[in-house]
Specification:
With 384 residues, the chain is α/β, with parallel strands linked by helices. It has helices spanning 26-29, 53-65, 69-72, 77-88, 101-113, 128-136, 154-164, 185-197, 217-222, 250-257, 267-278, 280-304, 325-337, 350-353, 363-378, and strands spanning 43-45, 95-98, 118-123, 139-144, 169-173, 201-205, 226-231, 244-248, 317-321, 340-344, 355-359. The strands form two sheets. A seven-stranded mixed beta sheet has the order 2-8-7-6-5-3-4, sandwiched between helices.
Length: 384
């Protein structure tokens, strides 16, 4: 007897092997698979999260007064966008929000990078730019970061590739998410001029700008071909909530609005951003404490390892150039035995392989890190 709902007259197809190749983008298949690790049970100083007591306490206060409808109703997008635009002093017609800066980067590469097919990418940079470029079928031209070539400015480095390229998406993270260093606003103005001459679209990723003195917003007033991505993960301690924004010209913003869905940001994230805006002084106090701790850690590590280079950071992390890849590996391994994870660049350039990147954690964790680095230094296991 045939089962109900199944046509007994249908003969099962002959089994055969499915060939997935027609469905696989060759540009994507060349990328490495990046497995997501579970770092919840260790001191994660690798991912640049703002996992600190102050934002945790602020979030708890928000949850205590958050309406239950935040879980059951769609977020108030018009209200959130207008409120955020007022806080940053821009028009709401220039602002686009999405579920994290990653989603915004993917959107920008797909909607603005794919039509031209070209991206000129400051390097080193956030690895996912390469992944989203491959997904969008965008060819990438690397642009070495000025701190990799001491004495050269980004305008010097960019002039030739920008002049030789048809209109392209030009991506710069400032401050840089690998080195922590800042490109001065005067230099960014010159880069805008170069982009304007070639009709390039300049995308500025300012995920770490809240920890710096840099302010890119004036660039929007003098060049309509600028888009600025801001993440709230580091600034407000919202890495788990996934929320970011783009400010750009109304024309580009309207084009982005035509693509993305209206409910991509969850109401808890939207509500907590509004709560952070209402308590902006507390968020700023947290940033000041990070800056103070950052400078103290840099001073102490310079005393411990006088031969190391520490680029002047304007982020929530420090980069330590140990001078030797073996030294970087040995220190990272030593810290890992103490349940402390720092960032290695094993697949990066030769210069980066001798470096470690360390997020500024809470004072108790950082005291432990310094103690372990002192132990490491006393053993003289590193190269001189």
């Amino acid at each position: 007897m045939a089962e109900q709902g199944i046509d007994s007259d249908i003969t099962p197809a002959t089994p055969h092997r499915f060939n997935p190749l027609p469905f696989l983008d060759p540009g994507v298949t060349k990328l490495n698979i990046r497995e997501k690790a579970d770092y919840r049970h260790i001191h994660n100083l690798s991912s640049n999260e703002a996992d600190l007591p102050e934002p945790r306490a602020l979030f708890r206060r928000y949850l205590d007064q958050a309406p239950e409808a935040a879980a059951t109703r769609y977020p108030n997008w018009p209200g959130l966008i207008r409120r955020t635009a007022r806080f940053y002093g821009i028009s709401h017609t220039s602002l686009v929000m999405d579920a994290g800066s990653d989603s915004l980067i993917r959107m920008m590469l797909g909607l603005l990078g794919r039509p031209s097919g070209r991206m000129i990418l400051q390097s080193p940079n956030y690895p996912n730019y390469l992944h989203y470029a491959a997904l969008a079928g965008v060819a990438v031209t690397p642009l070495n970061h000025p701190t990799d070539l001491w004495g050269e400015t980004i305008t010097d480095l960019a002039r030739r590739p920008l002049a030789a390229s048809p209109p392209a998406l030009v991506v710069v993270t400032n401050p840089n998410g690998i080195t922590g260093t800042r490109i001065p606003l005067e230099e960014m103005n010159r880069l805008c001029d170069l982009c304007a001459q070639g009709n390039h679209l300049l995308l500025i990723d300012e995920a770490y700008a809240p920890f710096s003195s840099i302010l890119h917003q004036p660039l929007l007033n003098r060049y309509s071909g600028v888009a600025i991505i801001r993440s709230f993960s580091k600034n407000c301690g919202m890495a788990g909530l996934r929320l970011g924004m783009v400010s750009t010209s109304p024309t580009i913003a309207a084009h982005l609005h035509r693509w993305y869905g209206v409910h991509t940001v969850n109401a808890i994230a939207a509500g907590f951003l509004a709560f952070c805006i209402d308590h902006a002084n507390e968020v700023e106090d947290q940033r000041r404490r990070i800056k103070t701790t950052r400078e103290e850690i840099a001073r102490r590590v310079t005393h411990l390892f006088p031969d190391w280079r520490i680029p002047p950071s304007e982020t929530n992390f420090l980069l330590f150039d140990t001078g030797h890849a073996d030294t970087a590996s040995a220190l990272a391994t030593h810290l890992r035995t103490q349940n402390i994870l720092v960032k290695r660049f094993e697949d990066g350039s030769l210069n980066l392989r001798r470096c470690l990147r360390m997020t500024i954690g809470d004072p108790v964790i950082m005291a432990t890190v310094l103690s372990e680095m002192e132990t490491f230094a006393s053993r003289k296991v590193f190269s001189s």
